TrEMBL record:
UniProt xrefs under InterPro entries: RNaseH-like_sf
Name of this chain's protein: Zinc finger BED domain-containing protein 5-like
Gene (name only): LOC112680683
PANTHER family (alphabetical): EPM2A-INTERACTING PROTEIN 1, LOW QUALITY PROTEIN: ZINC FINGER BED DOMAIN-CONTAINING PROTEIN 5-LIKE
Protein origin, superkingdom: Eukaryota
Length: 229
């Protein structure tokens, strides 16, 4: 906060600094503000959906560092001819994480806020059996509410499927990249050494870029990438 006051005073003057001083800094106050902001965003999203707007869901289940299963749902809808993406909810899953468990959590959230499945036009998930199972999968159960829901896999899952059928020349490169990435990411010390290597060579990035666009570029320049590593 002292550094922030100095910056504001330097850039905007004494009056702006006085406004910064008024900001409460207690843990409980900041916590309440964060909760208020999140609740306000949630209310705005729910209001738009309940007004009759169609929406698409992206659902994924993951385990946090404490070993608890967390279900995250993102929602996408159109407002004023613009596509808006928002975090819809993050709920803890208790017990086993079956498709029924996932559906029950989402469905309960819908009912609590009066959201109808009829407005859901698409669901995106990974390829896990709990999501895509033909009998008890989340998508199958959701289609009981609305049979014509479109379903898609996330892009990372699509690329994982494509990677299984790529030509041998590219598969060799991909396997080598995976081994190298896992080796560097296995220990914090290796990450720091890799950072120093990138810095000394004046490379564009000082850490591993895992997102797909960069990996695609690496395939195009596979020879120079392997030489660099």
């Amino acid at each position: 906060m002292p550094a922030c006051r100095i910056m504001v005073k330097t850039m905007l003057g004494v009056e702006a600094e006085k406004e910064i001083i008024k900001i409460p800094l207690s843990d409980s106050t900041i916590s309440r503000r964060i909760i208020n902001i999140s609740e306000d965003i949630e209310e705005q999203v729910i209001e738009v959906i309940k007004s009759g707007e169609l929406f698409a869901l992206q659902v994924d289940e993951s385990t946090d560092i404490s070993g608890k299963a967390q279900l995250m749902a993102f929602i996408r809808f159109i407002v004023n001819s613009k596509i808006v993406s928002q975090l819809f909810c993050c709920k803890k899953l208790s017990g086993i994480t079956t498709g029924r468990d996932v559906f029950d959590v989402i469905n309960k959230y819908f009912k609590n806020y009066g959201v109808s499945w009829t407005s859901c036009v698409s669901i995106c998930t990974d390829g896990a059996l709990s999501m895509t199972g033909s009998i008890k999968g989340f998508i199958t159960i959701a289609k009981n509410q609305k049979p014509n829901i479109n379903t898609t896999h996330c892009f990372l899952h699509r690329e994982a499927l494509v990677a299984k059928s790529i030509v041998n020349e590219l598969k060799i490169v991909l396997d080598q990249v995976v081994i190298m990435v896992n080796f560097i990411k296995s220990r914090p010390q290796k990450i720091r050494l890799f950072f120093q290597l990138c810095e000394s060579m004046e490379f564009d990035h000082y850490t591993l870029i895992i997102h797909t666009e960069y990996i695609r570029t690496l395939f195009i320049k596979r020879a120079s990438f392997i030489t660099f590593l």
